[in-house]
Amino acid sequence: MNRLVCAGLALAFCVTAHANVVRPAPDFRLAGVPQASLHAYRGQTVVLLVTRSARDKYFRAEVERLRSLYAEFSNEKVLFVAAIENGPQEVRSDIPFVIAANPAQVAANYGVNGRFGIAVIGVDGNLDLITDRLIAPERVRDTVFNNYESQNLARTPLPAGSNQ
Q1: In what order do the strands lie in the sheet with 116-121?
Q2: 113 Cβ contact partners less than 8 Å away, ≥ 6 residues apart
Q3: pLDDT tens-digit profile of 103-152?
Q4: CB crowding 42-51: b at 16 or more within 10 Å, else e
Q5: Which of 3, 23, 55, 112 is the most exposed place for a label (fewest CB within 10 A)?
């Protein structure tokens, strides 16, 4: 009986702790950064690119597209992460990428079965966007700036007497 009560309380805590996160992003570790994982960066938006090789044409094309937004994202504390399955290859870009440890597991956890995938993880830890296709930089921008938290703030009632 006590086990059932404890399990029920634990479940209630977990549901309450993640009530606003509809699709929690799978956690992963960062290479070369001790004790760092995705969860350590909660409060920051994370753009994750998954690829088999840093030389892959889709990966390079998406990195080039994101370059146009990088300056805009620098004020938003967006973290760029690359999970490169075929070795820890350097990402040649003006964007400072952090490399994910165990990229094959990252690809599996995010359902990237092909050669490329991109995910945007919101400040609340929600997986706001995941796709295996090249996407326009405007869509990434919209996802970063219109994450759950900002949408939730937009739904918050204005104080009484406010003219906005």
Answers
A1: 97-99, 79-84, 46-51, 116-121, 127-131
A2: 107, 132
A3: 999 999 999 988 899 999 998 899 999 999 998 888 988 888 886 566 66
A4: eeebbbbbbb
A5: 3
Kindly report the length of the chain.
Answer: 164
Q: Which of 103, 81, 150 is nearest to 122 (CA)?
A: 150
Q: Which two tokens stand for residue 103?
A: 């990229």
Give the whole-angstrom CA distance, residue 77 versus residue 70: 10
Distance separating alpha carbons of residues 141 and 54, to the nearest angstrom: 23
30 HSE (CA, 13 A, CB side): 19
- Which amino acid type is present at position 53? S
Q: Residue 10: is its pLDDT beyond 60?
A: no
Q: What is the rounded distance in angstroms from the CA atom of residue 109 to the CA atom of residue 40? A: 18
Per-residue buried b or exposed e for 121-136, using 16+ beta carbons within 10 Å of the residue's own CB: bbbbbbbbbbeeeeee
According to the CATH classification, is domain 22-154 in 3.30.1780.10?
Answer: no
